[in-house]
Amino acid sequence: MSVSEIERDRYARAATITLGEKRIDSPHFLTRISNPDELRSLEQLVMEGSPRVQGCVVRLFDAKNVLGSSIADMTQTRVDALSKYVGSRFREFLDKVTVVIDPATEYLFYEHHLSKWVNDRALPRLVTDYARARINKKERVDSYEYDNWKIANHTLFWNKLSHDAASRNRLIGEVFDLELSYRSSLLLPPVPVIRTSRDLEIAIQFNEIAQAISAGRNTECAGYFIMQKGVLDDDGIIDTLFRYLSNSSQRMVVLKFKYLDLVKAGSVRQLIAYRNILQQISFLKETFRDRAYMVLENGYQVFPSATVAFDLVSTHMTGFDKDSEFGHGEYGSWFDPELMVHMPFKDMKEIYENNQNRLPCAHDECADVDVNTIDANSWNTSRRKHYVLTMGDYMTMIANAIKTKRTDLAIDKLINSDISRLKKLIPRS
Ligand SMILES: [Zn+2]
């Protein structure tokens, strides 16, 4: 991996990051995709050449469903012309795109997706056994007892691994090999979600060992820290983390702040804490110019995060990183590029009509959408592509502002939006 700085404007920078054979211009948006339809949509956007949409993030427990069959098809020797064509197109896409497989091991704590761990035989046995025990327990006891047991059991799981070198090393190695089988350009180690200082100790231990285990796999291994948003304003934990990051050797650091939503009322303390984190990363980036920083599942924070601190930012293709069960066949909300928030579909007719029967964005992809006649599936595909294109536009906007030394423009962009309180995340000169 290498990082070469192209432009700098005080705290902000634009750089070219090389990961193996892939090159990526920062700031860059890598969308998370979670099903084969989203993969197809991303494939179209990448092949059409959207300049700052050349990567994606896939959670390990989604990878088989999202990428598995396409990769299998590609590597098989096929005879018929159609399969050959589909295979070679996918290969071309993979050559262009930077894939990051996220082990997403915080879901060994959270309740969502537990069944996905169990249903994929390729996943490490240690993890599938753990998930199966959780599901069995849940069926047998009431929710109060289950919740207490779950927390104790999760703590025990990581503590045991922390002391058992053979199991730990095997787990890290197995996760790395899976990530590589899905063509990840970066290795992310399995780590516990950080809720206490003990979790952070274990996460640091796993990160250190992962560096050693990754040697010989010929792919950059990132430092990876997943934080429950509650620890954001825990000075002890954040200080320890940054002390580690300023002494450690990882050239790429990936952070995830679980379910963080600074737009929500009542998050002022977290807003200040997150501002400090952005500044500390910005400082690290100035000190170690050959390093890069990435943030996953960053929701509405993506724009200020990319302006101040993170080279690579990511959210799910809908822009929502919460876990929720939306019904199928429903019209999802549309991300407004000016207001920088999602608009419910029921408001779209009026917005569309007030804009001469066009969606208020400049994308060719969106030009033919008629909100009066479109069916729910086509709408949901279209609004996802629109969201990703909009994030790509934001990244281009930030890069241009850095180039002209006018990063302050990012503050104006936020002031004129519905998430104006996030302007506090960007330092004033
Ligand atoms: Zn659009």
What does this 3D model show about the protein?
The chain has 429 residues and is of the alpha/beta class. The protein has one domain: Queuine tRNA-ribosyltransferase-like (TIM Barrel, Alpha-Beta Barrel), CATH 3.20.20.105. It is built from 15 helices and 13 strands. The strands form four sheets. Strands 4-11-10-9-8 form a five-stranded parallel sheet. Strands 1-2-3 form a three-stranded antiparallel sheet. α5 runs antiparallel to α6, α7 packs across α8 and α11 runs parallel beside α14. The longest helix has 28 residues. The radius of gyration is 21 Å and the shape is globular. The two termini are 32 Å apart. Bound molecules: zinc ion. The site of zinc ion (ZN) has 6 residues, from α14.
Name the descriptors.
429 residues; alpha/beta; TIM Barrel; five-stranded parallel beta sheet; three-stranded antiparallel beta sheet; 15 helices; 13 strands; 48% helix; 14% strand; binds zinc ion
Could you provide a short overview of the structure?
With 429 residues, this protein is an alpha/beta fold. The protein has helices at residues 36-47, 60-75, 81-96, 114-119, 125-140, 143-163, 165-181, 197-214, 235-247, 268-287, 302-308, 348-353, 364-367, 376-403, 409-415; strands at residues 2-9, 12-19, 22-26, 28-29, 31-32, 55-59, 98-102, 223-228, 252-258, 292-296, 312-313, 334-335, 342-343. The strands form four sheets. It has a five-stranded parallel beta sheet. It has a three-stranded antiparallel beta sheet with strand order 1-2-3.
